Amino acid sequence: xxxxEYRPRRLRxxxxxxxxxxxxxxSVDDLIMPLFVRHGKGxxxxxxxxxxxxxxxxxxxxxxxAALAKAGIPAVMLFGIPAKKDAxxxxxxxxxxxxxxxxxxxxxxxxDILVIADVCLCEYTDHGHCGIIVNxxxxxxxxxxxxxKSAVSFAKAGADVIAPSDMMDGRVQAIRKALDESGFSDTxxxxxxxxxxxxxxxxxxxxxxxxxxxYMEDRATYQMDPANAEDAMREIALDIAEGxxxxxxxxxxxxLDIIRRAxxxxxxxxxxxxxxxxxxxxxxxxxxxxxxxKKCVMEMMTAIKRAGADMILTYWAEEIAAWLK
Length: 325
Hints:
Blueprint: H1 15-21, E1 31-38, E2 44-46, E3 54-56, H2 58-70, E4 75-81, H3 98-108, E5 114-119, E6 132-134, E7 137-139, H4 140-157, E8 161-164, H5 171-181, E9 190-195, H6 202-207, H7 229-242, E10 246-250, H8 256-266, E11 270-273, H9 276-287, H10 293-307, E12 311-313, H11 317-323
Parallel strand pairs: 1-3, 1-4, 1-12, 4-5, 5-8, 9-10, 10-11, 11-12
Antiparallel strand pairs: 2-3, 6-7
């Protein structure tokens, strides 16, 4: 049928019509909150480039995790800022590392929330890269050994999910093997399968204190070229073949096409990371009165869900939970 016989506006005339016909439903069940942890006590250090976000010490992290669980949010993702950085990122795989301490603190408090541990070396190395440097370059296979140790250390501390974000070749296989051999065959892996070398990560590097400082000015030799969609599909396929239980696309908003393709091609549990730059630009515009923050955020999240994401990592998780009530 065509106009005037068919008039789509008939079913948009009021809010209840729109509710009945809405195709995509965003839920608090879809949300994962990223959190930054550092050594100390009583720490709630606001991150200037990410208004409303903080670095927490383990004690204040427990309070935050409890508030998130009360809001109905099912999971948090932890990123650590170590007491000391070194060339190998030693605190990433130390049983007394800040993330390991934080996982134990949340578990001791018996908070009903999943704890996902990000596995990467960039926060822990003095050069700010995601792996071990050999002859001025990130050495893939040497890095795999440290990532596997880190994953096992997080699992021993009680992490519910291991999430490698480094983009080394073969990391999912190496981590799966190490977890299985250490008695953690039931611990799932959420792989940052298609992680692009995005300009939208800037504020995160402030939050995690992890900008690249030496050897290479960026991470383009291991993170993906944002121009490449076929490459993303290959990376996702490889991680699934290596044993990933959930795959992730990062960043989210510039990669809605990748999210859609990944869902259509693999029919696999799919996460999308709405990253720090996406958060910061909406916050800045809202503070200047240029945009309505709530409306923009809900539109963004709905678009990410509509594209095919099953779960969304977002710094707005707590606010969205309140807005959805």
